[in-house]
Amino acid sequence: MGEPLTRRTVLLGMTGAAVAGAAAAQTPPAPHDDMLSGGLFTFDALAALAERRSGEPVKPPAARIPDALKALDYDAWRDIRFRPDAALLTGRFRMQLFHPGFLYPRPVTVLVVREGRATPVAFEKEMFDYGRNKIADPLPREMGFAGLRLHFALNDPGILDELAVFLGASYFRFLSRDQRYGLSARGIAVGSGQPGEEFPAFTAFWVEDPPMGEERITLYALLEGEALTGAYKFTIWPGAATGVEVEARLYPRRPIERLGIAPLTSMFYVSENDRRIADEFRPEVHDSDGLLLHSGTGEWIWRPLRNPIAPRITSFAGKTPRGFGLMQRDRSFTRYEDLEARYDLRPSYWVEPTGDWGEGRVELVELPGPDETGDNIVAFWTPASLLPQAKETRLAYRIRSIGDGADLHTGGRVRATFQATARASGARGPGRPDIRRFLVDFVGGDLAYFLREPDRVEAVPSLSAGKILRTSLMPNVVTEGFRVALDVQLGEGETSDIRLYLRSGQRALTETWTFPWSRERQ
């Protein structure tokens, strides 16, 4: 069953939602915008509306809800629940709505589309159970909502589970069977990892009411922000590996130096490869443990995530990637020992571009995470050239919510990364700060085939700086794979990007493991 929204997933899991409430441009619907007031709806018409808005001055958001709702804290807002008997849509899907307030003081417009005609959903207080809250009457019917969630019989034919949520700026998340909420997707990222990041917001949704028996649902969104506007189409098909097909049409208001396409946002706190936070009873705490990239050249690259001391941005340049995603590979409960969070059930999101995105780079942003309550990881594609102003840019891609991703490719994959200080050859005593030992476990693919003749397998390491002091390759009968130990020496203040893969002859057997090591100045 889908996990309900918690303090972690609502209050801090959607990084930037609070900022978006203050910074996102959200122009209230104009009377002449027919689609917002009950007219005929098409995606082309939505795109025309977004394009027109991009040429208009950015207007300050209108104050549309009472101050009492803006002042709600998390617990009070969470106590306001949508009544299940008021759910919208027919057939196999149901839609519930979030009440405005707390971090979401500027509500969005929600419309239901039937036979091409969009009907606004008027706010009605009777839709909600206010719990212990005492909200004075009346509340304006045109107030709108904070966001929406979709329900579907995902895990049991007789039970409607939470399938997807659109709430806060341009954030959305969705689940496959037997998963719990973890990372999030976003419609767009502007200036991610830099001061003054902007958070464009979905300000209106059009949700098609699927016909009886239909197992897909389509919804549309208007994106508005200071940097750009956009029209989005989301087609969601639920199941064992729920997927979302995304079509976007973007209209920049100004040049955007750092635009993130298909951004994914996650949390990484502690793992076996990063023990900087030692005072923690759980072996690992993270929604994702690595970035997986299938480059345009066909190479599979695995980059373990880190909780850095200072912000770090890593780029993987090239042409349109075949796919990329933030993965949760560790699926064993004993890796986490968390009965409440169940990080072992958190999904991985895998993005597959449609068409040619041109030259650019996949970027990974890692921010220091003082605890597990905030998202500190972002991954996205950023184009090499700026989007042209006054022109439409079309993009399309698919996101799938999967498990460990073991079936994404047939080669060996990285199972775990370990590191520690090491000693020079023959030396005794404590490890030296200029020498670091990395141990990488590879499993899967054809590796088990080579266990009886391990001499046929070769470790291939490389560095961007520093020196490789020694490399050893050991068969691992426990995992039916191989473990590589790599000692790297680095000068004070230097940074090195380390790469490693296994091959037999000229054939690569595994994906490429890559990891940055920075030796701090003493």
3D architecture notes:
The chain has helices at residues 7-12, 17-23, 43-54, 67-70, 74-78, and strands spanning 81-82, 94-98, 109-114, 117-120, 128-129, 147-156, 159-167, 171-174, 184-186, 188-190, 201-208, 217-224, 228-237, 243-252, 259-266, 268-270, 285-286, 290-294, 300-304, 312-318, 323-327, 348-354, 360-366, 377-383, 393-402, 413-422, 432-443, 458-463, 467-476, 481-489, 495-504, 507-508, 512-518. β3 and β4 (117-120) form a beta hairpin. The protein is mostly beta strands and 522 residues long. The protein folds into 3 domains: 1-254, Beta-galactosidase, Chain A, domain 5; 272-409, Beta-galactosidase, Chain A, domain 5; 413-518, Immunoglobulin-like, CATH 2.60.40. The strands form 5 sheets. The chain has a 15-stranded mixed β-sheet that branches.
